[in-house]
Amino acid sequence: MSVFISFSLPAIKNNDHYNLDDQRPCPEPEGLESARIPVVMDPTDLEAAKTLLQNFRPGYLELYNKPDYSYGNVTPVTSPENSAKGLRPLFDIGAPTQFVSLAVAFTRSDWLKKFQDNCTECMDKIGIIGAHVYSVEPMGAIDQIKKVYDQWPSKEIWVTKISPLTGDRSLVPIYRGGDG
Fold it and tell me: Cα separation of 152 and 132, whole Å?
């Protein structure tokens, strides 16, 4: 494994490699920790993300995990407009970090295009599109990945999650944009 995406910035506080209270340069990570890519889960992580970018300048940072879907009504749903407004200051920090796009739950929706409409300069600074792919059928997953490539031909595409849906579980979009 060369890299993996972790689920939350708060774990950084308890980590010797990313101690947000420590203003000294980050020590050289070893082993698995050196492969970890932090993620700004939702707007509640924005301040921690600013501190991370200002002090530790990670190689990669994924932005918002499934802003278009609330898992069990626990995670917040964030509109493309509010996401653009909240994330814009991260790009202004000027860290040499490569940004991974907001990973939407519905790759067929227009959520990410609406984000771009509200922050073109943000998408200019996002070189990698993170895609969550959910499909019962393998060809359905391949079709979703192809659609992401077709929507973002100038970007690198990372499948940041792939999972089959089963008959007793389904994702029902809360954000009703596009063909969801």
Answer: 15
pTM assigned to the model: 0.76
Q: What is the pLDDT of residues 36-79, one digit of tens each?
A: 788 898 999 999 999 999 988 888 999 999 999 987 777 789 99
On the CB side of 148, CA atoms within 13 Å amount to 25
Cross-strand partners of 37: 5
- CB of 47 closer than 8 Å to CB of 55: no
- Give every CB contact of residue 80 below 8 A, 6+ residues apart in sequence: 67, 111, 112, 114, 115, 117, 118, 177
Q: Compute φ and ψ for 47, nearest 5 degrees.
A: -65, -40
What number is the average pLDDT over the span 156-160?
92
d(CA 6, CA 83): 20
Provide the residue type at 70 as one letter.
Answer: S
Neighbour-count burial for 83-109, b at 16+ CB within 10 Å, e otherwise: bbebbeebbeeebebbbbbbbbbbbeb
Contact 38, 76 (CB under 8 A): no
- Tokens 């707007």: give the residue: 43
